[in-house]
């Protein structure tokens, strides 16, 4: 029987925290997120449940940190797959399709990450303190920013919309994963009534189609971003010698100034 010895130094505490995370990751290779219990995690890591709670305040806190770790590892691995999959000189719409395909294939190889993403909002963000919630959300913002930076490398046309696109893509991935893994009752229903089979989702096919549509729509929105419109009564006044092509023939100015009203007698 293992005798528990309290970690005395920060280094020892970090080693024990990583052991808990590694054990949880190994368990998720065998079971779903919903099946992982704190009691079984404690047993496998060789600590009492109360001692595991010295390092993580709940099962959900363990899984949120594991989600952050897996997300960062996935983004790092995605870089190589994108480099090998995207045609650099292709039109934006083709690069968008290639990006969607590569991202889908990469996620399909990371089952645990997809399972954690699918449980994030409905399960993992509950039973945690505000401190843990804030820490995870800050990490999620960093992960989205890193993914957006990688995305802009291959789709610079997305501009500032890349961050929003990546956040949406991650949410869509988790949702599709959930629907692509129907319960035993749903599988029985599909088998009994073939007309219902149209509702069953294949993860790879569905996610690739949805990401392709999302990227194409975002590219179109960025391309047709409305130009700045001046309030009525304002005109452009040139200050740096540059005149926009669309205004070159009609206005010699660039910076907006208020038009002076014409006096009745002028």
Summary?
Helices cover 61% and strands 3% of the residues. It is mainly alpha-helical and 266 residues long.
Ends apart, CA distance between termini: 102 Å
Q: How many DSSP-defined strands?
A: 2
Pairing-aware structural class of the strands and helices? mainly alpha
CATH class of the largest domain: Mainly Alpha
Tell me the number of helical segments per DSSP (H or I, 4 or more residues long).
Answer: 10
- Within the largest sheet, what's the order of strands? 1-2
By CATH, the topology of the largest domain is Tetracycline Repressor, domain 2
CATH architecture of the largest domain: Orthogonal Bundle
Annotated CATH homologous superfamily of the largest domain:
Tetracycline Repressor, domain 2
Helix fraction, binned, reads 55-70%
Q: How many domain regions?
A: 2
> Roughly what is the average pLDDT, rounded to an integer?
85
User: What value does the Rg take, in angstroms?
Assistant: 26 Å
User: What is the 3D shape?
Assistant: globular
Q: Low-confidence parts, pLDDT < 50 over ≥5 residues?
A: 234-266
Largest β-sheet summary: 2 strands, antiparallel
Percent in strands: under 5%
Series of secondary-structure elements, N-terminal to C-terminal: HHHHHHHHHHEE
Structure description:
The protein is mostly helical and 266 residues long. The chain has two domains: 10-56, Arc Repressor Mutant, subunit A (Orthogonal Bundle); 59-223, Tetracycline Repressor, domain 2. It is 61% helix and 3% strand. It has helices at residues 10-28, 38-45, 49-52, 59-85, 92-108, 111-124, 130-154, 162-179, 184-192, 203-223; strands spanning 234-237, 255-258. Strands 1-2 form a two-stranded antiparallel sheet. Helix 4 runs parallel beside helix 7. The longest helix is centred in the first third of the chain and has 27 residues, at 59-85. It is globular and about 60 Å long. The protein starts with 9 loop residues before the first helix and ends in an 8-residue tail after the last strand. The relative contact order is 0.08.
């Amino acid at each position: 029987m293992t005798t528990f010895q309290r970690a005395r130094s920060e280094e020892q505490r970090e080693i024990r925290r990583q052991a808990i995370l590694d054990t949880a990751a190994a368990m998720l290779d065998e079971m779903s997120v919903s099946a992982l219990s704190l009691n079984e995690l404690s047993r496998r890591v060789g600590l009492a449940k109360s001692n595991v709670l010295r390092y993580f305040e709940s099962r959900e806190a363990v899984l949120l940190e594991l989600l952050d770790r897996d997300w960062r590892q996935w983004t790092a691995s995605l870089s190589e797959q994108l480099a090998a999959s995207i045609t650099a000189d292709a039109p934006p719409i083709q690069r968008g399709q290639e990006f969607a395909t590569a991202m889908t294939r990469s996620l399909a190889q990371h089952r645990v990450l997809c399972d954690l993403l699918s449980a994030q909002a409905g399960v993992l963000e509950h039973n945690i303190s505000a401190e843990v919630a804030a820490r995870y959300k800050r990490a999620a913002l960093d992960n989205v920013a890193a993914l957006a930076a990688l995305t802009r490398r291959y789709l610079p046309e997305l501009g500032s919309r890349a961050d929003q696109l990546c956040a949406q893509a991650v949410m869509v991935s988790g949702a599709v994963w959930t629907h692509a893994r129907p319960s035993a009752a749903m599988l029985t229903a599909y088998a009994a009534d073939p007309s219902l089979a149209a509702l069953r989702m294949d993860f790879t096919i569905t996610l690739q189609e949805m990401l392709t549509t999302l990227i194409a729509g975002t590219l179109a929105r960025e391309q047709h971003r409305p130009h700045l419109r001046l309030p009525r009564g304002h005109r452009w006044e040139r200050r740096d010698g540059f005149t926009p092509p669309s205004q070159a023939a009609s206005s010699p100015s660039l910076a907006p100034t208020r038009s002076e009203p014409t006096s009745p007698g002028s």
